[in-house]
Design a protein that fits this description.
The chain is α+β, with helices and mostly antiparallel strands. The protein contains two helices and three strands; from the N terminus they run H-E-E-E-H.
């Protein structure tokens, strides 16, 4: 019976270590900046890894009062590009912890 308790303690220590590593990596990911761009880079958005929008830069060349829809489309493209980059890096960074765990 004592052997089982030793294994359990070892597993608990291993889980705690993994949890600390996960938190450290999540914090690093959250503080990293991601830049999403529209076609030809006319609109650029900057996010942090926790999906907080930090900045929007719009090239004056595409600002046309008669074609607001195009500008809106470019902003949407840039935002979606930035979010995809965050999602991809999150999966690469944090996925190793959640793979093969049911429900995650």
């Amino acid at each position: 019976m004592m052997r089982g308790m030793g294994n359990m303690q070892g597993m608990m220590k291993q889980m705690q270590k993994m949890q600390k590593e996960m938190m450290k990596e999540q914090e690093a990911l959250n503080s990293k900046e991601f830049i999403g761009e529209s076609t030809n880079g006319y609109v650029k958005v900057t996010f942090t890894g926790d999906k907080t929008l930090q900045d929007i830069a719009i090239n004056e060349a595409i600002v046309d009062a008669d074609d607001v829809e195009m500008l809106q489309d470019m902003i949407i493209l840039a935002i979606n590009d930035g979010l995809k980059k965050i999602e991809k890096e999150s999966e690469q960074t944090m996925g190793k912890y959640t793979r093969n765990i049911p429900g995650l």
